[in-house]
């Protein structure tokens, strides 16, 4: 004989189970729109003029774009002394005829009507120390034609955290009008490590695996051995590295399980990036 135990529940609990599924209250709350702020973006280096891009932030609920700001006053300081005031070139782009200098620190002050004044500071690192460059032709494979390998040694400065990017390009005049431009060349860091993340054609990495040492780098370049490939190795500021790293994480890479996160920002009372770098360009041809 099978005994069956009868389960009993309080009447109040049974009523609650029937009532809860039908309870729904819609509360409409008007959230205050965040105050608009200046969005300042500038990555300076000794090989280019001092240039700053200024726009205005938008609420996530506005559906608008980041509009350029054409009424800003942008001043560059060094040791609290005014160096120059940038001129508006159109579409929110400001520049001067001066280029920043390596190993120098700069302060940026951006003011525009209707916005809090934004400030930031950065510096230009030393050029990366590169030596012993060699190049060779890589044989064609089943998936691609012949390519180029480049090897060189990067000497990392000791007793400090250092950050880098590497990119490659080649002059191309294959357009009908014959106008030459620098076409990006795909690359792969073959040894001794892989790039940590990318932005466009720039491959970023830190010295956490080789701090203060000489590290041999070997690149595979997706370009014809008959052409000259230019490899640019840049020593960058921590703020630039952090900005791109968090921007890369926020991109989700089509992974909807990735939670959104904030992008690194070193603009006080504003948004964006003020970073710097110095670069060495290598001409590679087997």
UniProtKB/TrEMBL annotation:
<dbReference type="InterPro" id="IPR025345">
    <property type="entry name" value="DUF4249"/>
</dbReference>
<dbReference type="Pfam" id="PF14054">
    <property type="entry name" value="DUF4249"/>
</dbReference>
<protein>
    <recommendedName>
        <fullName>DUF4249 domain-containing protein</fullName>
    </recommendedName>
</protein>
<feature type="signal peptide">
    <location>
        <begin position="1"/>
        <end position="29"/>
    </location>
</feature>
<keyword id="KW-0732">Signal</keyword>
